[in-house]
Every structure is written in C-alpha cells, then in structure tokens.
Specification:
Elements: E1 5-10, H1 14-24, E2 34-40, H2 44-53, E3 59-60, H3 63-67, E4 74-77, H4 82-93, E5 97-100, H5 108-120, E6 126-128, H6 136-146, E7 153-160, H7 167-171, H8 192-202, E8 207-214, E9 223-233, E10 236-243, E11 251-257, E12 260-265, E13 269-275, H9 279-284, H10 288-295, E14 305-311, H11 318-333, H12 344-360, E15 364-365, H13 370-384
Parallel strand pairs: 1-2, 1-4, 2-3, 4-5, 5-6, 7-10
Antiparallel strand pairs: 7-11, 8-9, 8-15, 9-10, 11-12, 12-13, 13-14
Domain Gfo/Idh/MocA-like oxidoreductase N-terminal: 6-124
GO molecular function: nucleotide binding
Pfam families: GFO_IDH_MocA, GFO_IDH_MocA_C3
Length: 391
C-alpha cells in the first residue's frame, strides 16, 4: 500500500499525450489517489514539448533513469509493442507498479517472462490497460453471458473492420507495420481490445484456423486482413474478421446461444433476443401444423422470443480515466483490478495462434508452441533485414 500513486508516463506520443492531458487539464474525473510525476521519451523534440505543456515537470530521455530516479512509484508504457515487456520487467524488478499498454507483448514467451517477474515481486501491481472492459455495453454483455441469459454458447462472430488506415499512416514511422519493429499488423495494433473482449466474454477457444492477407492494397509486409475460425469445444464455434483496408467498415458482434442471441452493433447498440425456452425444446414441441403456420408466416414470434434493445454512450476519455483510477485505487486501497496484467497473455496467445495458423496453413492449438512461433517470427524478421531477431 502507498499514500499516492506517482505516475511516470513512458512515451509521449498520441496515447501518452492523451493520458498526460487528463492531468494537464485537471480532469475532475481523475481521483485523488494518482498524480503525474514525470514523463519519459527518447525523442529529443519531446523534451521541449513537455517543458511547454508541463513547466517544471521532470523529464527523462531514458526509461531506466526514470525508474531509478525515486520520483515515480508507478509507470504506464505507451511505447512500441516489443518494449512493453522489456520496460515492464525493469519496472517490476525495481518495485515499481506497472500499468502495461495493450498488447501485453508481441509473443507469448516474452509475456510469460513478464508474468513470471510479476510473481517474483508480489508487492508490486501489474495491470493492463484494457479500457474496453470498463465499457458499460461490454460489461453488460459479459454479465448476460455469465448469467446464461441466452443459454450455452453455440457460436460467436465478430466482424470488426472499422480500422481503415491509408498508406500514409504506415509511412509515418520506420518501425510501423514491420515484423521486427511492431511485431505484426492489425492483430497487434488495432484489434487487441477485441481479442481480449472475445475471450473475456465467451471464453478461450481450443483450436484456431486462420487465413491472413499480408499487405492487401498496402505497401507493408504484415497482416492487414484476417479471417479466423475458432473452435471453443463442445460444438461451439466462432469467427473473427478484421482488417485495415475497408473504408466503409463494419462493427458487429453476434453471440448465438441455446436460448437466444446477443447482438452488438457499432459498439453502441445492444440487442438481446431471449427465447421463452431452449431452441431444441421449442423445435421438439412444434408439430406439423405449427410448422405449416410457420412457413405461411402465421406464427406470432413474440410467443417465442423477447427482444430488448439498449443504446450506450461513453463520454470521451472516461474509459481510460476509469482504468487509471482503478489502478490507483488498487495500489492505495486494495480495490480489485479491472484487468490483472496476467490476463494480457490471452489476447497475445490468440493473435499468435492466428499468425501461426496462417504461416503453417493449418489448424493450430490455441495454446501455441511458443518456441515454434518465435522461430517463425524470426524468419520474417530476418527476411526484412532491418531489425535484430528476438529471443
């Protein structure tokens, strides 16, 4: 326990700048258990920017200097993906609390090292920035699934193609959209929240089969279109489709169960269709006369299904502030974490399985062979010829 969280932000880009902005603007939604104590960035131009935005605030151009300064007791890592585990391990080893950005890492072996370090230092907090878990809509969907409001899972389908990115987006940084610099494409950059929510709500699949396209319509080498099939066991299946080349994208999450269906449209509208009895029971009790009436459109479906709809609106920035507040409340008061850092490996595992299935052109276990995945990843890093291979 500590009196207050003194947060250091590592990386003063778009994400880090947004978090810092909450403090700069004295956002009243931030609670009193957290304050901004320092900012770190290895870009020399950011030093002047921080001095302008936060006069007198300590600035560091090396994250190790920040960690050893005694100024902060917690950090958030808004840096390229491969640095998440490196910086996270360094922080935890020094007794500094970690709020890791998503994804937890690029490959499972690296995330496993981070988790192992956190277990060796139980006095430190390891959380992950899954702000979508604070979204009232998805919390409601999870509640419905936990309560079996639509029975047992039979199929889950998520089409999330609203990530359109033109070529200029990829041209802005040499590390972006590379295997050695970013670790992949849409699966490690845009879609980690959905990969987390899918498992948080529906559970982990057992098998994965995926077809990926690399550089579809773009001059990049990583995946920007994904079509994956999931096997949850016991006959339950799923599909996950995402891409960054659809300018008129779709966001639709549909969960089909033995007693109904949940539909989420555009991450804003929730439609719940609950059957009056399990579908198999309704089918069994419908005689031929009922079937004929069904075919002739003479059946009142309201006798079989109850439909409810809800609209959700989340104020700008509230999700991220909620995670920061929860992180601080856990450290100061022992409040339960919204997302324990160990759970960050789930989305990485699923992304790795999709990559590996595509690379090997076959169905793979959800719990991928970490050594095999790393070997295949390093092949692609070597082909790029720009970055060191990973360990």
């Amino acid at each position: 326990m500590t009196d207050k969280v003194k947060l250091g932000i590592i990386g003063y880009g778009a994400e880090g700048g947004m978090y810092a902005g909450f403090f700069k603007n004295n956002d009243e939604r931030l609670n009193d258990n957290i304050e901004l104590a320092a900012i770190c960035d290895n870009d020399p131009a950011k030093k002047a920017k921080v001095a302008e935005d936060f006069p007198g605030l300590p600035f560091f151009d090396n994250y190790l200097d920040l960690l050893e300064s005694g100024i902060v007791n917690a950090i958030v890592t808004t840096v390229p993906h491969y640095d998440h585990c490196v910086m996270g391990i360094a922080a935890l080893e020094r007794g500094i609390h970690l709020l890791g950005e998503k994804p937890a890492g690029v490959y499972t072996k690296d995330v496993e090292r981070l988790i192992e370090t956190s277990k060796k230092h139980p006095e430190t907090t390891f959380a992950i920035f899954f702000n979508q878990r604070t979204n009232p809509l998805y919390r409601r969907v999870k509640q419905l699934m936990d309560e079996k409001a639509i029975g047992d899972l039979q199929r889950a389908t998520w089409i999330i193609t609203t990530w359109w990115r033109p070529q200029g987006y990829y041209n802005q940084s040499a590390w972006r959209a590379t295997w050695g610099g970013e670790g992949g494409g849409v699966l490690v950059n845009q879609a980690p929240h959905q990969l987390d929510l899918l498992q948080w709500i529906c559970g982990k699949p057992e098998k994965v089969y995926a077809k990926l396209q690399y550089g579809a319509g773009r001059n990049i080498v990583v995946e920007n279109e994904v079509n994956a099939l999931l096997d949850f066991g016991n006959g339950a299946t799923g599909s996950f489709i995402t891409c960054t080349n659809d300018i008129v994208g779709t966001d639709r999450f549909e969960i089909f169960g033995t007693k109904g269906k949940i539909i989420v449209e555009d991450s804003k509208k929730l439609i719940v269709k609950q059957l009056t009895a399990p579908e198999a029971e309704l089918s069994e009790n419908m005689d031929m006369q009922d079937v004929m009436r069904l075919f002739m459109g003479q059946v009142n479906m309201e006798d079989y299904v109850k439909i409810t709809e809800e609209e959700f609106v989340t104020p700008q920035g509230l999700q991220h502030i909620s995670v920061l507040n929860n992180f601080a409340d856990h450290i100061v008061n022992g409040e339960p974490l919204l997302a324990n850092g160990e759970e960050g490996i789930n989305g990485v595992t699923l992304a790795n399985a999709m990559h590996l299935s595509s690379w090997l052109d076959k169905e793979v276990d959800y719990n991928v062979d970490g050594d095999l995945y790393l070997a295949e990843l390093n092949k692609r890093i070597a082909e790029e010829g720009k970055f060191e291979q990973k360990k």
